[in-house]
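Example S7 (structure tokens).
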């Protein structure tokens, strides 16, 4: 039974190749985009902290706090997942694929902005804490903060990766082109997992 199911799944996924799922050029472009969003946001936080007498500090601090807030990112992210689910369910639809792509890329950009602001805030407010504790405690705190930022980066980068997959519509050997040969029940399962469950989790947070 398991052997038959394994052979069936291999036949369903046989179209997918490394080129369908991964491209160094796309990854490099994604890193560049988040760099362009995160670095200016990081610098703004640092400038406000160290040159607040020469800047509209209160206004910029309020803007930074609004940018760090995850609510907008969460909502747009869920909408993005809904469209990804529809794109997998209906891989021939160019309109759905384009909507999913633009939503994912914009979610990624918002996440990059928030990541830059968050990193700046962590660096500034953790500095006095790290400096006031023992060395081994400082190492633990610093390592934890680095892991937190890395996790946030990877989570946000997943939106860019999905966007790259959605941008393959109409390309021979691309992700969505390969999805056309996958049986409907598998695509329906992916749709339920991505679209319905993500929406349920969003409403659970309210």
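Recovered sequence:
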């Amino acid at each position: 039974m398991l052997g038959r199911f394994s052979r069936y799944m291999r036949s369903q996924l046989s179209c997918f190749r490394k080129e369908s799922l991964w491209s160094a050029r796309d990854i490099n472009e994604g890193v560049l985009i988040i760099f362009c969003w995160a670095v200016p946001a990081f610098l703004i936080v640092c400038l406000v902290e160290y040159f607040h007498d020469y800047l509209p500090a209160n206004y910029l601090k309020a803007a930074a706090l609004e940018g760090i807030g995850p609510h907008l990112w969460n909502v747009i992210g869920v909408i993005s997942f809904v469209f990804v689910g529809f794109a997998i369910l209906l891989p021939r639809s160019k309109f759905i694929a384009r909507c999913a792509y633009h939503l994912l890329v914009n979610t990624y950009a918002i996440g990059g902005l928030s990541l830059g602001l968050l990193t700046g805030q962590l660096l500034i407010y953790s500095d006095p804490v790290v400096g006031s504790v023992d060395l081994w405690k400082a190492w633990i705190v610093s390592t934890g903060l680095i892991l937190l930022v890395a996790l946030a980066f990877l989570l946000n980068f997943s939106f860019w990766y999905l966007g790259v997959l959605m941008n393959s519509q109409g390309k021979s050997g691309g992700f969505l082109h390969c999805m056309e040969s996958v049986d409907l029940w598998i695509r329906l399962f992916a749709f339920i997992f991505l679209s319905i469950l993500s929406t349920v989790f969003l409403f659970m947070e309210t």
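Notes on this example. The mean pLDDT is 84.
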